[in-house]
Amino acid sequence: MIYQFGDYSLDTKLLELRTGGVPSAVEPQVFSLLSYLVENRDQVVSKDEIFAAVWEGRIVSDATLNSRINAARRALGDNGREQTVIRTVHRRGFRFVADVVESGDLAESVSAEQMKPSARATQTIRFCGADDGVRIAYATAGSGPPLVKASNWLNHLEYDWESPVWRHVFEELTQDHLLVRYDARGTGLSDWEVDDISFDAFVRDLENVVD
Predict the structure, then answer these.
(1) What are the C-alpha distances in Å from 201 to residues 42, 55, 125, 130, 192?
(2) Which of 22, 29, 20, 58 minimizes the C-alpha distance to 134?
(3) CA 36, CA 112: separation in Å to the nearest integer?
(4) Cut 0.90: pTM above it
(5) Cα dist from 119 to 18, 112, 142, 170, 185, whole Å
(6) How many whole angstroms separate alpha carbon 100 and alpha carbon 104?
(7) d(CA 189, CA 182)
(8) What pLDDT was estimated at residue 184?
(9) Burial profile 26-36: b = 16 or more Cβ within 10 angstroms, e = fewer
(10) Which CA distances in Å does 70 have to 58, 77, 79, 141?
(11) Are strands 146-149 and 178-182 parallel, antiparallel or unpaired?
């Protein structure tokens, strides 16, 4: 399902937030929070309901929730003072208040102008689930035979893509290949709050991205 509001669209199938048709990077928990608020926009949702849906009942602090709410607002050009998209209902919870149009077809949300090829390859960021529930962010760019770059510690799909160190390498690799990169668990756009940081977990994450 695609939820469109203003210049933004939230694609719950591709796990993408797009601004003007261009994917915007948000942390997995922020995306889950936005999805839950949009899907339940006809009501005020309490903190406990959000904890159950987004954190699956795990014990987290109010400060953590407020941090994710603020990040969601920033991603949508909103803030705690204006609250034009996400409204705080005192002592009750939160509500998504922007006007939303639902769409089931990706093609409806992409204009012909946005489909034109560009000189420089652009990356598309999506998420896949690991065996232990950790969400791993991965990016694809270019076309041709797939070429997977294993993650390195403390990488970030968006920052590395614009990095003067890595950018020219990625551009060359996307000329003749479909380049696949991903953020290791605990870094970048992948889940940060993870229990298993081990070599075996990293190997399984690589396998999941390849699959």
Answers:
(1) 40, 21, 21, 9, 14
(2) 29
(3) 30
(4) no
(5) 21, 17, 11, 14, 32
(6) 13
(7) 9
(8) 94
(9) bbbbbbbbbbb
(10) 20, 10, 7, 30
(11) parallel
**CA 178/CA 106 separation, integer angstroms:** 21
Residue reference for tokens 């987290």: 60
DSSP β-bridge partners for residue 149 = 181
How many residues can be counted in the chain?
Answer: 211
Q: What is the mean pLDDT of residues 164-186?
A: 91
CA-closest candidate to residue 28, choices 154, 210, 194, 207: 194
Helices 28-39 and 62-75: crossing angle in degrees, nearest 10, is: 80
d(CA 23, CA 154): 22
Give the tens place of pLDDT for each residue, 86-128. Answer: 999 998 999 999 999 988 654 444 444 454 444 567 899 999 9
How buried is residue 15: exposed, middle or buried, by Cβ count under 10 Å (0-12/13-18/19+)?
buried
Decide: helix, strand or coil at residue 195: coil
For residues 174 and 72, what is the distance between their CA atoms, to the nearest angstrom?
A: 31
Mean pLDDT in residue range 43-68? 91
